Amino acid sequence: MRRLGRIALQASILLAASLTTFGSAAEPSVVASINPVHSLVAGVMQGIGQPRLLVAAGQSPHTYSLRPSEAQALENADLVVWVGPSLEPFLERPVANIARPSASFRLMHVDGLRLLRIREGGTWEGHAHDEANALADEHEHAHEHRHDGEEREHDGHAVQGVPDQEVDPHLWLDPDNALVLVDAIAARLAEVDPANADAYRRNAAEMRQRIRKTEAEAQRIVAPVADIPFVVFHDAYQYFERHYRLNAAGSITLSPDQRAGARRLIEIRAKMAELGARCVFREPQFAPDLVATVIEGTDTRVGELDPLGIAHEPGPEAYPEMLLDLARNLSACLQGES
């Protein structure tokens, strides 16, 4: 009888130990705002857990409304990864009011990013040298002198001291920024989930390698069309343009939640004619009527650029695939293949 008692006691101890181990290995609850951010987080969490994506395909973070179930997910999250209120205004109040404010991870505040000011006005010259472009030129100069395999220097914010609302939030479209974000996400996840810190670091290294390979392929694709002028639906691509030295002539609207007026459309049409812009690029999240108005009566082609990669299944591959899609679609339209 005593022997049976000892066996029962040992079994209960083993069971308790196994439950403790299981509890400590539970994956953290992570929420990511948009598909590119979700992809970077998913890459770092691969094999450990799966982050939840808020803004699904076909939606825009500029105009998104949070559902009650998503608000509850934010409240329960160990980590909420987002860019900032200028991109995801729907998150500003909920994130400020969650029970654990430390769960908020605002990517715009990550050290080492190359940030650019929001451009003003509907048109701009490719490679112009105003204040925002001067900041971009520093980025390009540094990029030219880095070689494959070099670690990127974390040099702080390019627009230090500038309020968030004056910073262009589409920072993930610069692959160099994505490399910085992957490291920062891994470090933050390691704080939340120390048991998996080594795995996060390994995954981050693999994700960086994937991004570098994709960046080089995108560079090869866009190089032949880099000097050809084009116009975009809204000014979301400054980071991509600066990184790859593209010749963007302007945008139909500065922000997709602001309707372009007649004066703006006239200005864009005049700039397109002056520069010989070959393409105007729409976005899949928004109605194409403004683009149709701008090109009416011209031989300008219409292409499509998607800064959110909504055509791609959420996961680690979505960010690299989005970069390649941007490069391919840009090249196809500018070369007359679309």
UniProtKB/TrEMBL annotation:
GO process annotations (BP): zinc ion transport
Region (Disordered) location: 138-162
GO terms for MF: metal ion binding
Biased segments, Basic and acidic residues type: 138-157
Gene Ontology CC: periplasmic space
InterPro entries: Bact_metal-bind_prot9, ZnuA, ZnuA-like
One Pfam family cited in the UniProt record for this chain: ZnuA
Signal peptide from the UniProt entry: 1-26
Compartments it resides in: Periplasm
Alphabetic keyword roster: Disulfide bond, Ion transport, Metal-binding, Periplasm, Signal, Transport, Zinc, Zinc transport
Superkingdom, taxonomy of origin: Bacteria
Name of the protein in question: High-affinity zinc uptake system protein ZnuA
